[in-house]
Design goal:
The protein has a two-stranded antiparallel sheet with strand order 1-2. The model has no long low-confidence stretch (mean pLDDT 82). The protein contains three helices and two strands. Helix content is 76%, strand content 6%. It is mainly alpha-helical. The N and C termini lie far apart (124 Å).
């Protein structure tokens, strides 16, 4: 007949084995110092997610470039010159209306 201590030992060994199996199937490895690390998985889903994240990052970088160009172009010499010319044109458009009001 098996003693109760032997049953406890057998159950403990079985639990330890199940835990090790689950760790191994999930990619968790232990180095020589006892540190556990998770190995990278190489399945198609993570590759697809990684590629989607790279595309999104590239799109965001392009958007930032456009926003930087918009922010800096408004302060360039050409932009100031264009704004000055537009202001002069608007001022000239307002002149005939002012002259008509004075003549009445």
């Amino acid at each position: 007949m098996i003693s109760s201590w032997a049953i406890v030992a057998i159950v403990a060994i079985l639990v330890w084995g199940v835990i090790q199996f689950v760790k191994a199937s999930n990619g968790i490895t232990t180095d020589q110092h006892g540190n556990e690390t998770m190995a990278g998985r190489d399945d198609g889903r993570s590759q697809a997610e990684l590629e989607a994240a790279r595309r999104e990052l590239a799109e965001l970088k392009e958007r930032v470039k456009v926003l930087e160009r918009i922010a800096t172009d408004a302060n360039s010499g050409d932009a100031r010159e264009q704004a000055r010319i537009a202001a002069e044109i608007e001022a000239l458009r307002a002149l005939p209306a002012v002259k008509e009001e004075k003549s009445e």
